[in-house]
Design goal:
It holds the Pfam family p450. Its cofactor is heme. GO terms for molecular function: beta-carotene 3-hydroxylase activity; heme binding; iron ion binding; oxidoreductase activity, acting on paired donors, with incorporation or reduction of molecular oxygen. Residues 641-666 are annotated as: Disordered. This protein has helices at residues 26-40, 55-60, 67-80, 85-116, 130-137, 140-162, 181-191, 210-219, 228-237, 246-256, 262-289, 295-312, 324-340, 350-355, 357-386, 403-409, 416-447, 449-462, 470-475, 477-489, 521-526, 571-586, and strands at residues 167-170, 194-199, 202-207, 224-225, 292-294, 495-500, 504-506, 509-511, 516-520, 589-593, 602-604, 608-610, 615-620, 635-638, 644-648, 653-657, 663-664. It has 666 residues and is α+β, with helices and mostly antiparallel strands. A 6-stranded mixed β-sheet has the order 1-2-3-9-6-4, sandwiched between helices. Strands 14-15-16-17 form a 4-stranded antiparallel β-sheet, with no helix packed on it. Strands 5-13-10 form a 3-stranded antiparallel β-sheet. Helix 11 packs parallel to helix 22 (571-586) and helix 17 (416-447) packs parallel to helix 22 (571-586). Bound molecules: protoporphyrin IX containing FE. Residues 1-3, 241-242, 253, 425-426, 429-430, 433-434, 437, 492, 496, 560-562, 566, 568-570, 573-574 line the site of protoporphyrin IX containing FE (HEM).
């Protein structure tokens, strides 16, 4: 993972506890307000929301959504809420949910209509003086000269405008309350592959065109930095690989990439299997007890356990216990996400920075994590000093195969601050992204039983009841396609961030130094002009016997791991991690979305989260016996001239080869 979201959408609300949702977004905050209003006025009186309506607009104002809609809802809500007890609180909850859904869907519709009506359009290539010129033409020679002058002026103006990137201008509130990449999609359908989005004094260039994305990420990548992303992540990643500037990045990338060699990744497949087995045991318990499980938080814990061990040989064991360090890591992750979508950099405001309890908690968490990392670095340094193993390309310590151990054993000459930054970056990059991919993969599988059945069939044949190995990764081809397709529909992160460091030309447009770019991977991956059935989950779109899809095979319309020099270093690691977890779970369980669970909506952080978790019901699978595929042998006959005829009974095909084994025409 690398990029976080645009700092333009929501004000961050209060926080949830561990770890499924890291922010309470504006809508859920609104819902909390409503719940609070209801609580204050609670039973035994029949509830009257209209009396509290002065509070309601205060949160609905934010949604550019008419108050009458909400009051319609509230009046029906008043009637429903006049019963008592548990029944009442259930009704309140479902009322709150309904309100949230209404707000979200009305806002989406509303915004779509406004975009289509051209409300956000600034420039237009249509003539605006035609009518005036027509009138002027009737005013004799003077009028005709004036009309001629006006036409020439307008033509020059339009030529100049054509060189400018199309611009959409609006009120920041128009896109609040929903994941910010959703309105960007509607704007993309209206304005095309590159447009400027202007909110007050701030403007961003939104890119949804594969050729421009390739230019920014690969062909002219040197001219682009990580911009605001580096500023936002500074507190936790410092000069780690993701935010690092060119100079630091070059040195650190060269040191870190070799640590993820094939032997290391093969060893990690064992780790993925063991961690996934811990998760399966939790699911087993839930299946036995008939309890629903919230999978987003479980996947978050699974991938935290994996990345802790893989990067610095630390057992978070978050699937089995909650410790201070796990809580501290989540505090930092949450803070990074909140900062990425904050309207103002509240963390830089002196009084807030020093006195806010939340910022104090962040500082304490950072200290705890850094102290732990320092301890781990010291322990690892001692191990390296004591060992007597020659360092080579595929160096790995069997007791501690971590990336940290590799870096120290390689003699990497680096300050402990830089090493800490690198480790934190790998921890964050490798944790949230994989958790999000697994969450959305299971969401999609639950709704596509045909895909699930095909997947289970493959896993049964390839793995049976064995633990997965590196060799299996190549054989689990359909499982890989399921992951590829999940990453297309739910790219993590959905937007990549860049800033131009010099003037540049993008197609017919001149771009100045200092422009902020959002490359919308979401738009690229769901573009109706780039994909057939763009919104449909179809792992078959890439044949299993073809190459794995990457940004190269798909010419930058598909960017699951970015592209160019800043491409993800953990792509193979993450793909195998996801394949292993999916395979281990689906071979053992059937599953579906839990009945009565909240609808699975999207919300943005660094990655795409669910709004209220992914609640699922797991049941034990009734498995059919595994029938191995028997390699079919052909019947061969040696002919008089020494050539060989081979015949396959199953399809009746005949092949003739000469003495040298080369196929010859019949
Ligand atoms: C499914 C899981 C993952 C996804 C979807 C993913 C996605 C990405 C993407 C899109 C980028 C490019 C960001 C940009 O250009 O701004 C990136 C960069 C990066 N990722 Fe991943 N990633 C995943 C897992 C991992 C893992 C497991 C690790 C570490 C073990 C990792 C480490 C990194 C690092 C260090 C970078 C920065 C590379 C650089 O700037 O040189 N990622 N990732």
């Amino acid at each position: 993972m690398a990029s976080l979201q645009a700092p333009c959408c929501y004000s961050s609300g209060s926080q949830t506890s561990l770890p499924a949702r890291f922010n309470i977004r504006q809508d859920s905050f609104s819902a909390s307000c409503l719940r609070a209003i209801v609580d204050i006025r609670s039973t035994p009186q029949p509830l009257s929301i209209s009396g509290g309506s002065s509070l309601i607009p205060s949160f609905l104002q934010c949604s550019s959504f008419s108050t009458s809609n909400s009051l319609d809802f509230c009046s029906s809500f008043t009637v429903n809420a006049s019963s008592s007890g548990e029944d009442l609180s259930e009704k309140i909850d479902s009322g709150v949910e309904r309100l949230q859904q209404i707000i979200a869907s009305r806002k989406e519709e509303d915004l779509r209509e406004r975009i289509l009506s051209g409300e956000f359009s600034v420039s237009s290539s249509r003539s605006r003086t035609k009518k005036i010129r027509k009138v002027l033409m009737k005013w004799g020679t003077f009028g005709r000269s004036l009309a001629f002058f006006l036409a020439r002026y307008e033509r020059n103006y339009l030529v100049q405008q054509a060189k400018k990137v199309p611009e959409a201008r609006g009120d920041v509130r128009a896109i609040t309350g929903q994941p910010f990449f959703i309105p960007l999609y509607d704007l993309y359908l209206t304005y095309g592959g590159i447009f400027r989005l202007t909110f007050g004094p701030k403007s961003f260039l939104i890119v949804s065109d594969p050729a421009i994305a390739k230019h920014l990420l690969k062909d002219n990548s040197k001219a682009y930095s990580k911009g605001i992303l580096a500023e936002i992540l500074d507190f936790v990643m410092g000069k780690g690989l993701i935010p690092a500037d060119e100079e630091v990045w070059r040195v650190r990338r060269r040191a870190i990439v070799p640590a993820l060699h094939r032997k290391y990744v093969a060893e990690m497949v064992g780790l993925f299997g063991r961690a996934a087995e811990n998760l399966c045991q939790k699911l087993e318990l839930a299946a036995n007890n008939g309890e629903d499980v919230e999978m987003e938080s479980l996947f978050s814990r699974l991938t935290l356990d994996i990345i802790g061990k893989a990067v610095f040989n630390y057992d978070f064991n978050s699937l089995t216990r909650d410790t201070g360090i796990v809580e501290a890591v989540y505090t930092l992750l949450r803070e990074a996400e909140d900062r990425s979508i904050a309207i103002i950099p509240y963390w830089d405001i002196p009084i807030i920075k020093d006195l806010s309890p939340r910022q104090q908690k962040v500082a304490a968490a950072l200290k705890l994590v850094n102290d732990n990392l320092n301890d781990l670095i010291s322990i690892c340094k001692r191990m390296v000093e004591e060992e007597n193993v020659k360092f080579d390309e595929e160096y790995m310590n069997d007791k501690d195969p971590s990336i940290l151990h590799f870096l120290l054993a390689s003699g990497d000459d680096v300050s402990s601050k830089q090493l800490r930054d690198d480790l934190m970056t790998l921890l964050i990059a490798g944790h949230e992204t994989s958790a999000a991919v697994l969450t959305w993969a299971f969401y999609l599988l639950a709704q596509n039983p045909d895909v699930l059945a095909k997947l289970q069939h493959e896993v049964d044949l390839v793995l049976g009841d064995r633990m997965p190995t590196m060799e299996d990764m190549k054989k689990l081809k359909y499982t890989t396609r399921v992951i590829n397709e999940t990453l297309r529909l739910y790219p993590q992160p959905p937007v990549l961030i860049r800033r131009s460091m010099e003037d540049d030309v993008l197609g017919k447009y001149n771009i100045s130094k200092g422009e902020d770019f959002f490359i919308s991977v979401w738009n690229l991956h769901r573009s109706p002009t780039l994909w057939e059935d763009a919104d449909v989950f179809k792992p078959e779109r890439w044949p299993v016997d073809g190459p794995d899809p990457t940004e190269v095979t798909e010419n930058f319309r598909y960017l699951p791991f970015g592209g160019g020099p800043r491409k993800c270093v953990g792509d193979m690691f993450a793909t195998f991690e996801n394949i292993t977890a999916v395979a281990m779970i689906v071979r053992r369980f059937d599953f579906e979305l839990a009945l009565g669970a909240p609808p699975v909506g999207m919300t943005t952080g660094a990655t795409i989260h669910t709004t209220a978790g992914l609640h699922m019901t797991f049941t034990h699978r009734h498995r059919f016996p595994i029938i191995p595929v028997v390699e079919e042998s052909a019947v061969t006959t040696i002919n008089e001239n020494g050539s060989v005829t081979s015949y396959r009974p199953s399809n009746g095909s005949t092949k003739i080869s000469n003495r040298e084994g080369q196929e010859v025409k019949k």
